[in-house]
Amino acid sequence: MKKQLILGLALGASLQAGMAQTLEKMQWFNEPEQWKIENQALTMFVTPQSDYWRISHYGFTVDDAPFYYTTYGGEFEVKVKVTGDYKTRFDQAGLMLRIDHENYIKTGIEFVDGKFNLSTVVTHKTSDWSVITLDKPVPYIWIKAVRRLDAVEIFYSFDDKEYVMMRNACVPVMVGLMAASPDGNGFNATFENFKVKHLPDLRRQEWLKKNAE
């Protein structure tokens, strides 16, 4: 059997057609003190001094940032519009694809040294980090992840029309949204138009072609 994927929201989201569950039926991993669901959106104040990272470079492991999630199996496309009142170095918000504390991807906007970065951390036992620095601040960003087989392609967009790939990585199962404020005292942020779309399994489609009646 295929493992299920976790779909989550760390700050806010608006569910559209294609997502089987509603925000009210989702659940927290590291629930923040302040959050609410209103007008099909989840908003929260990001927990201060929280993050997701394992071992490499910094020598510490943390797994305590807010993550609002549900489960989802198979292949899929997930996207969300992210807005944040970023203030302090490493303030971040975006999608999360998670198996467990040793295996996950987090990707979105991260505020580093006064600049906005498109950031992706891929963790398999230890974490790595890739960034694309933007030349100016942006009011919001669209982040999309597409899981096909055991690979995940990650894209960004400024208008939900033209998407640019920023990373291709491997993760067996999980997906969702997260936010963290490792160095700061928290910040307000919003996720809008969160949508998950099922994609037919390519392996099954190929099998059906080879075994057509």
Explain how this protein is built:
By secondary structure, the chain is mainly beta. It has a single domain, classed as Jelly Rolls, CATH 2.60.120. Helix content is 4%, strand content 55%. Strands 1, 2, 7, 9, 10, 11, 12 and 16 form an 8-stranded antiparallel β-sheet that branches. A 7-stranded antiparallel β-sheet has the order 3-4-17-8-13-14-15, with no helix packed on it. A two-stranded antiparallel sheet has the order 5-6. The longest helix is centred in the last third of the chain and has 9 residues, at 202-210. The model is unreliable at 1-5 and 7-21 (pLDDT under 50).
Could you give a short description of this structure?
By secondary structure, the protein is mainly beta. It has one helix and 17 strands.
Which short descriptors sum up this protein?
single chain; 213 residues; mainly beta; Jelly Rolls; eight-stranded antiparallel β-sheet; seven-stranded antiparallel β-sheet; 17 strands; globular; disordered N terminus
Largest sheet: 8 strands, antiparallel
* Helical residues, percent: under 10%
Strand content: over 45%
Shape: globular
CATH topology: Jelly Rolls
Please count the beta strands (DSSP E, at least 2 residues each): 17
CATH architecture: Sandwich
Number of helices: 1
Helix and strand content put the structural class at mainly beta
> Residue ranges: pLDDT <50 for 5 or more in a row?
1-5, 7-21
End-to-end C-alpha gap: 25 Å
Number of domains: 1
Write down the secondary-structure element order.
EEEEEEEEEEEEEEEEEH
* CATH class division: Mainly Beta
Mean pLDDT: 83
